[in-house]
């Protein structure tokens, strides 16, 4: 019976940490839900996220493991892999869009009203920038 719960090194098997995690999460979350319900307000998402983070850290301490096992170590390798992940993610999103566009399964249309507003706003900023640059050029070059 003991083999079900413990591995060869005498530590609790990883699968049993799942019920421990959810039990701890329930112990922290239910009082907050009850208070929020009594006050007729929802539990904000950031509070829920903080609770999950807190319970995760508690479980790591109970397991005698480092928190960096979950978060990863912040170093050059992390930044390098993050950059590669961003690029790979962009390719994985752009490739299907291009494939669907080339095959004719998707037709892209600009919202002409929104595009016109953007164009007019761009022209206004360009005009203002031109006027400002002419004004400052006149001020600085007047004495030459």
Describe what you observe in this structure.
The protein is mostly helical. Helices cover 73% and strands 0% of the residues. It is built from six helices and no strands. α2 packs antiparallel against α3. It is elongated, with a radius of gyration of 29 Å.
Strand content: under 5%
Helix coverage percent of residues? Answer: over 70%
Could you spell the SSE succession in H and E letters? HHHHHH
User: How much is the radius of gyration in Å?
Assistant: 29 Å
By DSSP (H or I, 4+ residues per run), the number of helices equals: 6
Poorly predicted regions: none
- The beta-strand count equals 0
| Coarse shape | elongated
* Overall pLDDT metric: 82
Furnish the topology, listing elements before pairings.
Elements: H1 2-5, H2 17-38, H3 45-62, H4 68-71, H5 76-102, H6 112-141
Helix pairs in contact: 2-3
Q: Which terms would index this structure?
A:
single chain; elongated; 144 residues; 6 helices
Question: In brief, what are we looking at here?
Answer:
The chain is mainly alpha-helical.
